[in-house]
Amino acid sequence: MTDLKRLGLAIMLHTAWLKRAGIAGILAIVATGCSDNSSSFSISDRTSSLIPEAQSGVADTPGVVDLLEEKFGNPQQLKAWTKLPVQWGGAAASVEVFAADAEGAKVRFTVADGQEFPAKATFVNVVTGSGAGKTLGLSSWDAATGEAVLTGLDGVVLASGDTCSIDGGAVIRSGRVLYMRHCSHCHGTAGDGNGPTAQYLYPRPRDYRHGVFKFTSTNDMSKVSREDLLRVLRYGIPGTYMPSFLLMKDEELTAIVEYVRLLSMRGEFERKLVNELVSDYSADAVESRLKDEQRADIVAELGEFLSEDLPGVVDGIGGELEESWVAADTEEARIIPSVPRVPDSEESRRRGRELYLSKTLNCADCHGIDGAGNGPQTMVYEKNPVTNVPYNEPGLHDVWDNLNQPRNLHTGIFRGGRRPIDLFCRIHAGIKGSRMPSFKNTPHEDIWHIVNYVLSIPFEPEPGATGLAAGPIAAPLVGATPAAGE
Amino acid sequence: MLRRLGKLSGRVFSAATVVLAAGCSEYGEPVIGGGATVVPQVVFIASEADAAGADAAAGSEASAEVATGSIRGRVQLVGTSPTMELLVKQGAEIKDKEVCAAVDVPDERLQVSGDGGVANVFVYLQKAPKGGSPVVTPSEPFVFDQKNCRFYPHTVVLPVNQTVRVLSNDSVAHNTHTYPSKNIPVNSGVAPMDRDGKLEIIYRKAEAVPLAVKCDYHAWMNAWHLPLDHPYGAVTNENGEFAISDLPAGTHSFVVWHEAADGNFVQRKLAVEVKAGEETEVKIEYPSSILKL
After folding, report:
1. Residue A400 lies in a domain
2. Which of residues 63-82 of B touch A (CB under 8 A)?
């Protein structure tokens, strides 16, 4: 007995020690772990190209990086800049009556029309009034009277008319978590298209920060609509690494869409702020200015610009973001063919091929005479139109500086979707950010002829093929009388 | 004993998870793989908070009657003028040569007159001056044409909101692709011999520097547009001359920008004193050493 017992005791003592040491060790990891594990939004190369004072401000005046933090926060603490057209989630409510005592505070809320008080809400975000930006606890809520008990006030006083968001940011919080789980590997924490796997992928994952998405059902000057993003999430992008997320719930997908839109707006905000500063305050610009100016004078001038002009600029950018992203979801932005699809026929395909090769449209210039994506423009050495620096390889480059292969139309793989209306939109709006121009001024009937031709190309016989397949047009005629827009 | 230790480490691990969850997340979600799955906080910022800044910025608009003067000047190349080869020689074996090489096309990046005047140099105020007159948007559209795979004009200063009508005098397809930094880019096809100008471009915002306009069918085609929200900008003519009138009296700082200058700025801040009722002569020297062709 004794030996066994002794052994048992020894093990018990040992485990107690192990436990203590283990937990202490883990606590140590946790203490550093939280800060180490917290993620951050990267800043763009263009922001880094500015002098440090333009990035982080002169004296107390904020610079680009501070303004990004102020308006968008970080992945752990997101800012909901309510000016932006993002569905943050939560119910908007205004304060009717507020009474605080030592226990907490009683508030009567009026929930905005058409919204419901979230049943499981545990906190309230104050949006306007003296407590704006604060998060308060919600310990109870009476649906009949609209009365709620708030905790954790810490001196915050609400006044009648103040607006709050109950369970504020529920959608964007869920979008952030889901994005980090499913999207950030490729698209990066900040949506910069530079997640850890990005370097192994071709084509590269989209960098959202231009606010530009290639495949949209909106017209050439409009941004991507929520519906377009949702469609890409549901069905993926054929021919690329972007998979389908069809198995996720609708509310999960819409939350991701909102978060992707928020990251796009953050990127655009950063880009537009830098645009204001880059020509005078990039490190290169300042270096060249030092020939006839003193650095202190340049910094003083920058400080003046940051304090006097930038607040107006920030507001202006917010307004632009609001306007353009709202417009993308309106009917006016949608491409609606003025004529129903021309029925597919040999005649229509022939007409489409004529247009494809014509001097008017000259699709062959990039896509090649036989549609293999090898037109003469793919051989041209170009310069970056903005920086004027020549590209290393010949061919067509997009705004992300990626080399684009004009689509090989024989594969039957269409990244923006293979429905006739998808091809119609590609021709009508062009492919945003790329060299593919919009042909919005081409008669819609002609666009449909090209769509019919392009859809028939994958069925064309190989050159030199014999037998049945070598007939003049081997493709089956499909969709003879489709509905308008399909 | 090993089994026991295994169990034990499991217990320690779950304790760790609890600790981690409590330590990092307010909402009690377990932390796996760093902070990615921690539910973030959301802090609301009211949109009204921004309005104050905008009002302050708009405050400078009010303008009383201000004494004005004008400037007239010339951009002069100093040093040896490089010989510019033709961009396209007549009859050259290039794409769409029957149109694009029908005539000699000069390289417009640098055009110097016999006595050294540099054409196509932008001279402008980056910001509307205090007391300046507002920008006037002409009701007639500005005609932007192309012939022999060359844009006409090569350079232009445009008031914001003016319609730019894009025409083509060529029997080949073109597209007009703009690269603005503050406006929405345009990339749209232009049909051959489109003399009505179906494509219209409107710049809603002023740009800080001229923006490139390209044609992707003919990569060598290039023009520069500068939309401004004030009337104080000009482009030099073929003799390198420019004139800007109705400037409020006082000292102004002009930007002198040219596509062939290294870094594009001939002068970032050219201080000119404008005297009421007078025309000030401005001589701008463009050292050939800063050319980057």
Report:
1. yes
2. none
CA angle, residues A211, A215, A221, in degrees to nearest 5? 55
Q: Within a domain: residue A475?
A: no
Determine whether the interchain pair B217/A288 forms a contact, defined as Cβ–Cβ distance below 8 Å: no
Rounded CA separation A350/A328 (Å):
35
* Residue range B69-290 in CATH 2.30.40.10: no
The pLDDT of residue B4 is 52
Q: How many CA atoms lie within 13 A of B43 on its CB side?
A: 16
Q: pTM here? A: 0.86
Distance CA A216, CA A205 (A): 17
Test A23 with B15 for CB contact under 8 angstroms. yes
For chain B, report the end-to-end CA distance as a whole number of angstroms: 79
**Nearest CA to B150 among B204, B111, B208, B206?**
B111
pLDDT for residue B131 = 87
Shortest alpha-carbon distance between residue B229 and chain A (Å):
14
CB contact under 8 A, B219 and A386: no
**Domain tally for chain A?**
3
Check whether residue A199 and residue A130 sit in a common domain.
Answer: no
Encoded tokens for A250: 């609708």
Domain span at residue A385 reads 346-470
> B249, B67 in Cβ contact below 8 A?
yes
For residue A59, being part of any structural domain is answered with no
| CB-CB contact of A251 with A25 (8 Å) | no
pLDDT at position B186 over 90: yes
**Burial (Cβ within 10 Å: 0-12, 13-18, ≥19) of residue A174:** buried
Q: Are B232 and B242 in contact (CB under 8 A)?
A: no
As a whole number of angstroms, the distance between CA A244 and CA A231 comes to 9
pLDDT, tens only, A5-33: 555 555 554 555 445 544 444 444 444 44
What is the number of CB-based contacts under 8 A between chain A and chain B? Answer: 219
Domain termination site, one of A332, A360, A383:
A332
Q: Per residue in A121-156, pLDDT tens?
A: 888 999 888 888 888 999 888 878 888 899 888 888
Query: Are residues A251 and A221 part of one domain?
Result: yes
Residue in A315, A324, A355, A387 to test binding to B, most B beta-carbons within 10 Å: A315
Q: Return the CATH number at A113.
A: 2.40.30
Strands (E) in chain B, as ranges, are 41-45, 68-78, 86-88, 105-106, 122-125, 142-146, 151-152, 155-159, 163-166, 174-179, 187-190, 199-202, 211-214, 222-228, 233-235, 241-248, 250-257, 265-274, 279-287
Q: What ipTM was predicted for this assembly?
A: 0.84
Verify that A197 and A114 share a domain, yes or no: no
- Give me the helix-helix angle, A64-72 and A250-281, nearest 10°: 160
Could you state, in order of their start, the residue ranges of all structural domains in chain B? 2-43, 69-290
By the 8 A CB rule, do A321 and A268 touch?
Answer: yes
Are A327 and A352 contained in the same domain?
A: no
What pLDDT is recorded for position A56?
A: 95
Comparing CA positions, the residue from B22, B53, B50 lying closest to residue B38 is: B22
pLDDT, tens digit, for every residue of A200-243? 999 999 999 999 999 999 999 999 999 999 999 999 999 999 99
Q: What is the C-alpha separation between B255 and B269, in angstroms, rounded?
A: 6
> Are A192 and A328 members of one domain?
yes
DSSP secondary structure letters along B142-171: EEEEESSS-EESSEEEEETT-EEEE---SS
CATH number of the CATH domain containing A389: 1.10.760.10
